[in-house]
Amino acid sequence: MSALYLYSRWLRAWHWINALLFLVLMYTGASMHFGGGGWLMPFDLAVTVHNTAGILLTLGWIGFVVGNLTTENGRHYRIHLSGFVDRLIVQGRYYAQGIFRNEPHPFHVSVGMKFNTLQQLSYLGVMFGLMPLLILSGWAFLFSVSLPETLLGLPSVWLVAMAHLTLAYLLVLFLLVHMYIITTGATVTTNLRAMITGWHREDDPSSGQTEEAKS
After folding, report:
1. Full-prediction pTM beyond 0.70?
2. CA–CA dist 18, 24 (Å, integer)
Protein backbone atom coordinates (compact mmCIF):
# COMPACT_ATOMS: atom_id res chain seq x y z
CA MET A 1 0.00 0.00 0.00
CA SER A 2 1.45 3.37 -1.03
CA ALA A 3 1.24 6.51 1.09
CA LEU A 4 1.21 10.07 -0.23
CA TYR A 5 1.41 13.23 1.86
CA LEU A 6 -1.26 15.34 0.16
CA TYR A 7 -2.87 17.49 2.85
CA SER A 8 -0.55 19.99 4.50
CA ARG A 9 -1.17 21.35 8.00
CA TRP A 10 -2.64 24.66 6.88
CA LEU A 11 -5.07 22.89 4.54
CA ARG A 12 -6.24 20.44 7.19
CA ALA A 13 -6.65 23.24 9.73
CA TRP A 14 -8.68 25.28 7.25
CA HIS A 15 -10.81 22.25 6.28
CA TRP A 16 -11.89 21.40 9.84
CA ILE A 17 -12.39 25.00 10.93
CA ASN A 18 -14.43 25.63 7.78
CA ALA A 19 -16.50 22.50 8.44
CA LEU A 20 -17.18 23.58 12.04
CA LEU A 21 -18.18 27.09 10.95
CA PHE A 22 -20.50 25.69 8.29
CA LEU A 23 -22.23 23.46 10.85
CA VAL A 24 -22.65 26.47 13.15
CA LEU A 25 -24.09 28.48 10.26
CA MET A 26 -26.51 25.67 9.40
CA TYR A 27 -27.74 25.42 13.00
CA THR A 28 -28.04 29.16 13.61
CA GLY A 29 -29.55 29.70 10.16
CA ALA A 30 -32.24 27.11 10.92
CA SER A 31 -32.78 28.75 14.32
CA MET A 32 -33.42 32.12 12.67
CA HIS A 33 -35.49 30.68 9.84
CA PHE A 34 -37.84 28.81 12.17
CA GLY A 35 -37.83 31.39 14.94
CA GLY A 36 -36.06 29.39 17.64
CA GLY A 37 -37.85 27.16 20.12
CA GLY A 38 -37.32 23.53 21.02
CA TRP A 39 -33.79 22.38 20.21
CA LEU A 40 -33.10 25.56 18.23
CA MET A 41 -31.12 28.55 19.50
CA PRO A 42 -33.02 31.66 20.64
CA PHE A 43 -33.45 34.04 17.71
CA ASP A 44 -31.41 36.99 19.02
CA LEU A 45 -28.49 34.78 20.06
CA ALA A 46 -28.69 32.91 16.74
CA VAL A 47 -28.34 36.18 14.82
CA THR A 48 -25.19 37.15 16.75
CA VAL A 49 -23.58 33.72 16.43
CA HIS A 50 -24.56 33.43 12.75
CA ASN A 51 -23.06 36.81 11.88
CA THR A 52 -19.86 36.04 13.79
CA ALA A 53 -19.48 32.64 12.10
CA GLY A 54 -20.16 34.26 8.73
CA ILE A 55 -17.38 36.80 9.26
CA LEU A 56 -14.98 34.02 10.27
CA LEU A 57 -16.06 31.97 7.23
CA THR A 58 -15.25 34.96 5.02
CA LEU A 59 -11.76 35.24 6.52
CA GLY A 60 -11.30 31.50 6.11
CA TRP A 61 -12.31 31.62 2.45
CA ILE A 62 -9.86 34.45 1.81
CA GLY A 63 -7.17 32.37 3.52
CA PHE A 64 -8.09 29.39 1.34
CA VAL A 65 -7.72 31.43 -1.85
CA VAL A 66 -4.42 32.96 -0.73
CA GLY A 67 -3.15 29.53 0.32
CA ASN A 68 -3.90 28.06 -3.08
CA LEU A 69 -2.27 30.98 -4.85
CA THR A 70 0.93 30.77 -2.80
CA THR A 71 1.39 27.00 -2.35
CA GLU A 72 1.48 23.99 -4.64
CA ASN A 73 -2.02 22.98 -3.52
CA GLY A 74 -3.45 25.30 -6.17
CA ARG A 75 -2.31 22.99 -8.97
CA HIS A 76 -4.96 20.44 -8.00
CA TYR A 77 -7.66 22.86 -9.11
CA ARG A 78 -6.22 23.37 -12.61
CA ILE A 79 -8.26 21.45 -15.17
CA HIS A 80 -6.29 19.82 -17.99
CA LEU A 81 -8.36 20.17 -21.15
CA SER A 82 -6.68 17.30 -23.02
CA GLY A 83 -8.98 14.29 -22.64
CA PHE A 84 -11.26 16.23 -20.28
CA VAL A 85 -14.56 15.00 -21.74
CA ASP A 86 -13.41 11.37 -21.83
CA ARG A 87 -12.27 11.53 -18.20
CA LEU A 88 -15.54 13.13 -17.20
CA ILE A 89 -17.58 10.39 -18.87
CA VAL A 90 -15.47 7.60 -17.39
CA GLN A 91 -15.63 9.06 -13.89
CA GLY A 92 -19.36 9.73 -14.14
CA ARG A 93 -20.00 6.16 -15.28
CA TYR A 94 -17.95 4.84 -12.36
CA TYR A 95 -19.96 6.79 -9.78
CA ALA A 96 -23.26 5.87 -11.47
CA GLN A 97 -22.56 2.15 -12.04
CA GLY A 98 -19.02 0.90 -11.53
CA ILE A 99 -18.77 1.66 -7.83
CA PHE A 100 -21.82 -0.53 -7.16
CA ARG A 101 -20.29 -3.39 -9.18
CA ASN A 102 -16.99 -3.27 -7.30
CA GLU A 103 -15.14 -2.19 -10.45
CA PRO A 104 -11.62 -0.71 -10.04
CA HIS A 105 -11.53 3.05 -9.66
CA PRO A 106 -10.58 4.68 -13.00
CA PHE A 107 -8.61 7.42 -11.22
CA HIS A 108 -5.61 6.97 -8.95
CA VAL A 109 -4.46 9.75 -6.66
CA SER A 110 -0.95 11.09 -7.21
CA VAL A 111 1.22 13.86 -5.80
CA GLY A 112 0.53 15.84 -8.97
CA MET A 113 -3.24 15.29 -9.00
CA LYS A 114 -5.34 14.37 -5.97
CA PHE A 115 -8.76 15.10 -7.48
CA ASN A 116 -10.52 13.26 -10.29
CA THR A 117 -12.28 15.33 -12.95
CA LEU A 118 -15.68 15.36 -11.26
CA GLN A 119 -14.11 16.32 -7.95
CA GLN A 120 -12.23 19.16 -9.62
CA LEU A 121 -15.42 20.51 -11.17
CA SER A 122 -17.42 20.22 -7.95
CA TYR A 123 -14.72 21.83 -5.77
CA LEU A 124 -14.16 24.62 -8.28
CA GLY A 125 -17.90 25.25 -8.48
CA VAL A 126 -18.30 25.26 -4.70
CA MET A 127 -15.16 27.09 -3.55
CA PHE A 128 -14.90 29.62 -6.37
CA GLY A 129 -18.58 29.86 -7.32
CA LEU A 130 -21.12 29.12 -4.59
CA MET A 131 -18.99 30.12 -1.59
CA PRO A 132 -18.16 33.67 -2.73
CA LEU A 133 -21.80 34.18 -3.74
CA LEU A 134 -22.97 32.93 -0.34
CA ILE A 135 -20.50 35.23 1.39
CA LEU A 136 -21.50 38.24 -0.71
CA SER A 137 -25.21 37.62 -0.12
CA GLY A 138 -24.51 37.25 3.60
CA TRP A 139 -22.70 40.56 3.77
CA ALA A 140 -25.46 42.19 1.72
CA PHE A 141 -27.97 40.84 4.24
CA LEU A 142 -25.83 42.11 7.13
CA PHE A 143 -25.80 45.62 5.65
CA SER A 144 -29.29 45.45 4.15
CA VAL A 145 -30.09 48.99 5.38
CA SER A 146 -27.65 50.24 2.74
CA LEU A 147 -29.36 48.38 -0.12
CA PRO A 148 -31.71 50.19 -2.51
CA GLU A 149 -35.40 49.62 -1.84
CA THR A 150 -35.77 47.40 -4.91
CA LEU A 151 -33.51 45.26 -7.11
CA LEU A 152 -34.68 43.96 -10.48
CA GLY A 153 -38.13 45.23 -9.62
CA LEU A 154 -38.30 43.18 -6.40
CA PRO A 155 -37.80 44.15 -2.74
CA SER A 156 -34.03 44.08 -2.31
CA VAL A 157 -33.98 42.50 1.17
CA TRP A 158 -36.32 39.70 0.05
CA LEU A 159 -34.21 39.08 -3.06
CA VAL A 160 -30.96 38.92 -1.07
CA ALA A 161 -32.59 36.67 1.55
CA MET A 162 -33.86 34.22 -1.09
CA ALA A 163 -30.49 34.17 -2.84
CA HIS A 164 -28.70 33.53 0.47
CA LEU A 165 -31.12 30.76 1.43
CA THR A 166 -30.91 29.07 -1.98
CA LEU A 167 -27.11 29.14 -1.94
CA ALA A 168 -27.13 27.73 1.60
CA TYR A 169 -29.36 24.84 0.51
CA LEU A 170 -27.06 24.10 -2.44
CA LEU A 171 -24.04 24.02 -0.14
CA VAL A 172 -25.85 21.73 2.30
CA LEU A 173 -26.56 19.42 -0.65
CA PHE A 174 -22.87 19.51 -1.56
CA LEU A 175 -21.98 18.69 2.05
CA LEU A 176 -24.20 15.60 1.99
CA VAL A 177 -22.68 14.41 -1.30
CA HIS A 178 -19.20 15.19 0.03
CA MET A 179 -19.83 13.07 3.12
CA TYR A 180 -20.88 10.18 0.91
CA ILE A 181 -17.85 10.50 -1.39
CA ILE A 182 -15.60 10.42 1.70
CA THR A 183 -16.68 6.80 2.22
CA THR A 184 -15.67 5.67 -1.29
CA GLY A 185 -11.94 5.29 -0.63
CA ALA A 186 -10.04 2.02 -0.21
CA THR A 187 -11.99 1.65 3.05
CA VAL A 188 -14.87 3.64 4.49
CA THR A 189 -12.48 5.69 6.64
CA THR A 190 -9.48 6.02 4.28
CA ASN A 191 -10.33 9.52 3.03
CA LEU A 192 -11.36 10.73 6.48
CA ARG A 193 -8.05 9.61 7.98
CA ALA A 194 -6.19 11.35 5.17
CA MET A 195 -7.75 14.69 6.09
CA ILE A 196 -6.78 14.11 9.72
CA THR A 197 -3.21 12.88 9.24
CA GLY A 198 -2.36 14.41 5.86
CA TRP A 199 -1.44 11.00 4.40
CA HIS A 200 -3.48 9.37 1.64
CA ARG A 201 -3.14 5.59 1.46
CA GLU A 202 -4.09 3.55 -1.59
CA ASP A 203 -3.67 -0.07 -2.62
CA ASP A 204 -2.72 0.74 -6.21
CA PRO A 205 1.08 1.09 -6.44
CA SER A 206 0.76 3.29 -9.52
CA SER A 207 -0.72 6.12 -7.47
CA GLY A 208 2.66 7.83 -7.25
CA GLN A 209 5.74 8.06 -5.13
CA THR A 210 5.61 9.00 -1.48
CA GLU A 211 6.45 12.66 -1.02
CA GLU A 212 5.98 15.03 1.90
CA ALA A 213 4.67 18.43 0.95
CA LYS A 214 6.61 21.43 2.18
CA SER A 215 3.76 23.90 2.00
Report:
1. yes
2. 10
